[in-house]
């Protein structure tokens, strides 16, 4: 902020401002506001003239009221940015030293996207008290005041030329301002100009919600991933075991087993080749025993059914034999 030059236009020359000069000018105008002078519609030209004389006497310069007004506009833009940064959801503010604080993570993320904001964060703000007195939150001056029809989140009075002026100010050079701080300048008297967005979606509370929402969505996506997902190379790993003598039927059967049990399939893929061989060998051996046991159980079942049929047949024969004896006895009588 030290030693920058402002181009003023209108044949008024240029002014080289140092930090002490800026501080002196702001203190002078802050004292005007503190004395009770009404500045809701901007400073009267008489106060700019008086401020210019005071600065010239103090620093042996030849500034005029236009140069004072132009430099005040530069500081009002700084104040607008400070106000915006203070409203960040992750920021804090130290009243004693006038410091906007962001923790390391939020600072790095914000400065990565908005490099020009670095000079306002985590360090004392130059001339904060004076700016607060002049541009305080309830104060709207000149063309910076909004009328009731202005959309929220926009700032009027900035055309493409105005945007270029802001870029110039960032490099220490500024075009001549409009009558921003002259008495009687109201929002209704301003010509219609294209409004521009003051804050992008990445700034302020909206930006904070967006960043938190993105992180939350990523976390939910990770948690919601199904445990049924199988490694893409699962079959290739199982099929590679065929070199150890396992046939296609055994390979296919073991692969089906892993697909039906995804957690086992994931663990299998993480094993060294020798251990993979052990797993499939144990499985194939177990499957063989299961088949043998199944055949034995089936044979036993058939034997039980045959025995049951024989027993039933004997019972029928016995009943028929008993009936035949009774009939023969009746005939004899």
From TrEMBL:
Residues 155-164 have a biased composition (Acidic residues). Residues 301-333 have a biased composition (Basic and acidic residues). Residues 148-191, 290-333 are annotated as: Disordered. It comes from the Eukaryota. This is Myb/SANT-like domain-containing protein. It comes from Setaria viridis (Green bristlegrass). Transmembrane segments: none annotated. Signal peptide: none annotated. Residues 17-89 form the Myb/SANT-like domain.
